[in-house]
Structure formats: structure tokens, C-alpha cells
């Protein structure tokens, strides 16, 4: 144990994270020990899901924070190749929920799907702790690929389904639903922040196995919470119809088979790229085919949906530099980071912390503007989101260049970039989910939500390709080349945002908000599933 007088900033941040985690667990124990069916006006099942998801996000984002360093420093992939692997992995994480959600809706039910996904995730995170000797010639790298595949498929079964279960605890007309999702999203972001700090600290300061091992322990803890809390779910998430043992076993076998497919895919990123292109064009073609069969107003709403969905890859392709190229840049070229300073992975906690701070402000802002008739339309908010993510890069490049090429970039500009990217995220992610749910015809609602997540997956792969470019022809990142790419994508995105803003009145007209009617279609939970890196957000009020 290091003498307290020798603690650096990273040590203090880790200790603070442990204290905060302890406080949350104490509250959780008090809720679990209560004999009452509700706590603070909500069913105890909500808090069980809160803590199960908090631990799952603790594991996922903790592992994600050190993945790029594990690829470059332990398995010795080049910077460019590591970014591409990272992008391929995160893109697959956003595609598999389509399979997991379908199997849960039709056969398993959300509870068993989450349980199966949790088991796969726990195995995957624990397998990540098998380091071997390192280098690509080490046969242990196959265990690493298996670990990624298990996490990908496990996320597919768990990611959207646990969010849907929150909605199933309430009637569609229950006024507590929005507050419930706000509480749930806090669990996601608390888990993301604490996991990033503690797993990142152990992984970079003590050893990879310790960091990944903690992520695995966190996932096991979430699984235990979920299993022990079954009774407080009050039947939420059960199968839609009686399921035979043979059919249930077959579904689990499909999940295991999917692990084998992902084990291969994550190693061959070019195959993923081709699959994304082919399946993306097929999805676009099908949506357009269905759109042209609709009357004028629903058809134009579908055009508005496609317009918004098409912006997803651009935004997430830039935003997701956080865990890849920007993570590497922070480690190598930012003052006070790395050896003797704060581990670079800890900076991944800034985004979820900002979300916790800013999301209530944005929700209140949209309501206030809406009452005055000044709230921007959904496409205008998308334009603001792109402007902010582009401006984040431009501010960072300016800050890095202001001190000269030989001087480490001041850490202030890391915080500014994350702040602008987070406020941009809050203008796009919850707004987009709300728009998908509001504008899609009932019979196409699930397909449209799937298309939204699909394009998020494309964005994550685009992020890997942009990150690969920062490595240049040699595959190794340089400060000047990375800043040049950030500068270029910043200006391009700012220009695109201006075009989107100019087109927004046309797209708003396509939305036909004045003729939208309320519906009671039973789509409990849709629109609240986690859309991106940091978690879910409370859905904005009318006017989104």
C-alpha cells in the first residue's frame, strides 16, 4: 500500500470513486432490506434493475476505457489497427441487440434474455483477465477474441431488454414512467463513471488482469443482484407464451453459435465493413419500399426519419473517438497524464459525469423553450449536435496548437472537448429516440428503432476508420497528424451542421407535428433503450 503522502491525482480519484460506490451500495442495501413494496414512490423492482444495470455498465465501460491501451501495449497492434479493432468491436455491440431483442420479444421474455446475456457477459469480462505473455504470436490472444465475442453477444441479449423491463413495471398511463427512466439512466451513468475510474486505475496502474478482473467481478455482482431480485419484478419480463424446454435450449444454442460468429468477425474488420454496407443498403431499400406504400403524411414522416437516421454515423463516428484515438492522444500528448500522473483511461469518466450534471438542465431547457414556442425542431437540434461535436475538435486543436507542437496539450482542453461533445450528445441522442418513437407508424416502430441502433453501429465502425487514419501509413499515431485530422473533421462537421440547419424547416414540415395523434400501442419501453456510449437519457417533452 502506497504511503498516503505519495498519492497522486489518480490515487485520490480512485479513492473518491470507491467512497461513492460504497455510498450507492449502502443505499441499495437499505432498499433491499425494506419490507415495503415501494421506495420513494417507485416499485422496488426499479431499484433492482438500477443496480443490476449499474454493475453491467460498470463492467462494460470500465473494460472499454482500457481496451485501446490493451491492444496497443499488450497485444502490440499498431495504433491504426487497434482503432479499427476497437471500432469493429463497438459496432458489433450495437448490432446484436437486434437479435437479442427479437428473441426476447418472441420467445424468451426479457428476464431470461437478460439473465442469459449476463452470464455471457460475466464469462467474457472474466476471460479478458487472461493476459498470457502478450504479442500477437501468443496463443492466448484467441482467449481475448473469445472474450470480446462473449461480451458482444451478451450485450445483445441484455442491452435493450433490461431497459424495456423498466417500462413493464408501470402502466403506459402511469405518470411515474418518465421519472423511473430518469432514475434508471442515473444508474447507467453512475456505473459508467465509477467503472471507468476503478477499472481504468487498476488496469493502467497495477496490471491488465486486475482491471479486467474487477470488470468481471462487477458483472457477476450485477448478475447476483438480478437473480436475487426476481421477486420484486412482479412478473415483468416474462415470456409472452409458455416456452418448451427444447425451444428454450435451442435459443441458448443460437446465442452460443452467435459467439462463434462474432469471434471470427471481430478479427476480420473488412468483412464487417462489407456486411454493414450490404445490410445497410438492404435496410434502406426496405424502409423506402414500406414508405412509398403509405399515404402522404406518414410517408413524409418516414422521409424525416431517414434524414435523421442518416446523420447518426457522422455524429457517432466523431463522438466515439473518445475511447479510441482521443484516448491514445490523451495518454501520450496531454500534460499531467500517463506516467506519474492521472491514467488516461480515467478521463473516459468525464462524459457520464457531464451527462448526470447536464441532462436535467437540458430537459428543463427544452420544456422552458417549448412553453414559449421557441424550442428548436428535432432536425435543428441535430444540427446543433453536429456543430458542437465539430466545435469540440476545433477548440481542442486550437488549444493544442496554442502552446506549440513540442509542448504537452493543457488538460483544460480535454475537459472542454468532452463538455461540447456531451452537450451535443444531449441534443441528438434523446431527441432522436423520441423522434423515432413519435414519427414511425405503429407497425414499423420496432424496425425503425432497429434502424436507429443499426446506424449507431455504423457510426462506431466509422469511428474505427477515422481512428485508423490517425495512424497514417505507418500505423503509428503522431501528434501533428492527429491534430490535422481533428481539424479537418471539425470544419467538415461544422459545415454539415449549417446545411442541416438550413434544411431543418423542410424536414420539420415532413414531420407533420400538427396532425400527430396520441396512441396507446403497447410499446412499453421503446425509445428508452440505451443509444450510445454513456447511457440513456430522459426523453424530452413535447416539441422534440
Describe this structure in a few short sentences.
This protein is mostly helical and 544 residues long. Helices cover 72% and strands 1% of the residues.
Largest sheet: 2 strands, antiparallel
Overall average pLDDT: 87
C-alpha-based Rg, rounded: 22 Å
The number of distinct helices, counting runs of at least 4 residues, comes to 18
Poorly predicted sequence stretches spanning 5 or more consecutive residues: 521-544
Major sheet: order of its strands?
1-2
* Percentage of residues in helical conformation: over 70%
Span from first to last CA?
52 Å
Strand content: under 5%
SSE run = HEEHHHHHHHHHHHHHHHHH
Record field, number of beta strands: 2
Look at the helices and sheets and give the structural class. Answer: mainly alpha
* Overall 3D form: globular
Amino acid at each position: 500500500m502506497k504511503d498516503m503522502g505519495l498519492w497522486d491525482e489518480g490515487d485520490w480519484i480512485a479513492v473518491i470513486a470507491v467512497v461513492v460506490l460504497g455510498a450507492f451500495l449502502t443505499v441499495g442495501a437499505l432498499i433491499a432490506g425494506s419490507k415495503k413494496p415501494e421506495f420513494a414512490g417507485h416499485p422496488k423492482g426499479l431499484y433492482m434493475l438500477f443496480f443490476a444495470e449499474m454493475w453491467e455498465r460498470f463492467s462494460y465501460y470500465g473494460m472499454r476505457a482500457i481496451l485501446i491501451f490493451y491492444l496497443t501495449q499488450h497485444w502490440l497492434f499498431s495504433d491504426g489497427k487497434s482503432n479499427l479493432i476497437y471500432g469493429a468491436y463497438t459496432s458489433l455491440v450495437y448490432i446484436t441487440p437486434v437479435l437479442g431483442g427479437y428473441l426476447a420479444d418472441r420467445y424468451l421474455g426479457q428476464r431470461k434474455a437478460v439473465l442469459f446475456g449476463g452470464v455471457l457477459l460475466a464469462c467474457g469480462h472474466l476471460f479478458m483477465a487472461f493476459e498470457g505473455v502478450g504479442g500477437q504470436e501468443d496463443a492466448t490472444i484467441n482467449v481475448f477474441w473469445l472474450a470480446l465475442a462473449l461480451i458482444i453477444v451478451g450485450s445483445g441479449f441484455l442491452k435493450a431488454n433490461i431497459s424495456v423491463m423498466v417500462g413493464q413495471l408501470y402502466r403506459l398511463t402511469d405518470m411515474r414512467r418518465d421519472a423511473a427512466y430518469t432514475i434508471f439512466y442515473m444508474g447507467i451513468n453512475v456505473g459508467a463513471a465509477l467503472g471507468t475510474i476503478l477499472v481504468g486505475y487498476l488496469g493502467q496502474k497495477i496490471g491488465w488482469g486486475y482491471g479486467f478482473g474487477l470488470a468481471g467481478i462487477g458483472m457477476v455482482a450485477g448478475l447476483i443482484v438480478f437473480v436475487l431480485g426476481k421477486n420484486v419484478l412482479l412478473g415483468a419480463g416474462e415470456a409472452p407464451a409458455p416456452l418448451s424446454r427444447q425451444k428454450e435450449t435451442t435459443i441458448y444454442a443460437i446465442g452460443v453459435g452467435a459467439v462463434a460468429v462474432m469471434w471470427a468477425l471481430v478479427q476480420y474488420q473488412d468483412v464487417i465493413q462489407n456486411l454493414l454496407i450490404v445490410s445497410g443498403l438492404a435496410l434502406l431499400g426496405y424502409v423506402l419500399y414500406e414508405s412509398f406504400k403509405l399515404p402522404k403524411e406518414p410517408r413524409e414522416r418516414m422521409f424525416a426519419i431517414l434524414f435523421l437516421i442518416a446523420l447518426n454515423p457522422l455524429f457517432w463516428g466523431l463522438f466515439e473517438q473518445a475511447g479510441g484515438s482521443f484516448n491514445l492522444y490523451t495518454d501520450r500528448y496531454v500534460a499531467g497524464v500517463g506516467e506519474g500522473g492521472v491514467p488516461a483511461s480515467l478521463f473516459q469518466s468525464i462524459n457520464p459525469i457531464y451527462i448526470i450534471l447536464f441532462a436535467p438542465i437540458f430537459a428543463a431547457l427544452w420544456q422552458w423553450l417549448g412553453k414559449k414556442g421557441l424550442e428548436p425542431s428535432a432536425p435543428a437540434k441535430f444540427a446543433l449536435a453536429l456543430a458542437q461535436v465539430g466545435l469540440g475538435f476545433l477548440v481542442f486543436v486550437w488549444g493544442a496548437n496554442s502552446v506549440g507542437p513540442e509542448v504537452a496539450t493543457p488538460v483544460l482542453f480535454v475537459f472542454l472537448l468532452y463538455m461540447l461533445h456531451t452537450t451535443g450528445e444531449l441534443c441528438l441522442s434523446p431527441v432522436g429516440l423520441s423522434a423515432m418513437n413519435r414519427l414511425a407508424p405503429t407497425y414499423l416502430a420496432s424496425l425503425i428503432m432497429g434502424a436507429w441502433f443499426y446506424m449507431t453501429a455504423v457510426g462506431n465502425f466509422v469511428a474505427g476508420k477515422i481512428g485508423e487514419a490517425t495512424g497514417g501509413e505507418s500505423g503509428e499515431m503522431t501528434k501533428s497528424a492527429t491534430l490535422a485530422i481533428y481539424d479537418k473533421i471539425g470544419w467538415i462537421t461544422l459545415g454539415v451542421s449549417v446545411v442541416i440547419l438550413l434544411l431543418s424547416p423542410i424536414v420539420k414540415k415532413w414531420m407533420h407535428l400538427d396532425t400527430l395523434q396520441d396512441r396507446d400501442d403497447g410499446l412499453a419501453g421503446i425509445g428508452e433503450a440505451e443509444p450510445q456510449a454513456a447511457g440513456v437519457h430522459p426523453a424530452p417533452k413535447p416539441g422534440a
